[in-house]
Amino acid sequence: MNASALVLLVLTAAGAGTPQSVVSVRVPEAIGVVAGESVEARISVTVAQGYHVQANPASEDYLIPTRLELKPARDIAIGKPAYPSGQPYRLSGADKDLKTYAGTFAIGIPLKTSRKAQPSRRTVEGRLHYQACDLKSCLPPASAQVTLTIEILPGKSKPAPDSLARR
Questions:
Q1: What angle do CA 159, 39, 111 make, to 5 degrees?
Q2: Which CATH class for the 16-155 domain?
């Protein structure tokens, strides 16, 4: 048995949750946006009581930050995720705080549709990467599936120049 399998076995035997049961992700049912315009999608992340995940950016280089990764989608530009500020968390015996997330927090994702996008329903696929820890130990790094549904609506038409009334 390799070392990582042994650590996972010990964590499970000690009553630690599994990575999948410790963090859950909730996305909006559908996000409507007019072709050529922008919208911010908000991904809700909940960390089980007694656990935390590292903030983004992480307090130290060796820590694994929570990171949302989305795949490109046709006619949809995906901006840089906006992570909340981490909350201070001090490990027993440590001399400084770490920035972490606990409870429920939101990650904002700027989305911009192409002006040429046709009205349709699209999906943006991705994963939320994280490592959950409690007071005694950290679970192995894990990820959760994220699927955003984007409803591209017809673009706004500009009035013809001759239809504008002159005053």
A1: 110
A2: mainly beta
